[in-house]
Amino acid sequence: MKMNTSKVIPITSLVFIVGFMLYSIYSIDKYHDEKAIVDGERYSKLQIIKTLENEKGIFYFLGDKENQIEVNKRYYELAVSAYKDSQDGK
């Protein structure tokens, strides 16, 4: 049985490209999950000292009067939740 290589090579290339794209998306998502857990650990130890609401959204200022970090409310909640879930073994 002869195989027509003119059709096999493009299909193989397409499968490889789609597989690579899926792996890249998975890797990026996994990196963001791990980063959220690390950030959540740090954020959960810091006190919210100020809240700012503007056209870009709601922001928390964490830390103390000398050292502060500004965090988007949505990311703060996501990161703290991811950290707590990782501690619960989920």
UniProtKB/TrEMBL annotation:
**Membrane-crossing residues?**
7-26
Q: Which UniProt keywords apply?
A: Membrane, Plasmid, Transmembrane, Transmembrane helix
Q: Kindly indicate whether the keyword Transmembrane helix belongs to this entry.
A: yes
User: Does the entry feature the keyword Membrane, yes or no?
Assistant: yes
Q: What is this protein called?
A: Histidine kinase
Q: Which organism's genome codes for this protein? A: Pectobacterium carotovorum (Erwinia carotovora)
Q: What is the lineage of its organism?
A: Bacteria, Pseudomonadati, Pseudomonadota, Gammaproteobacteria, Enterobacterales
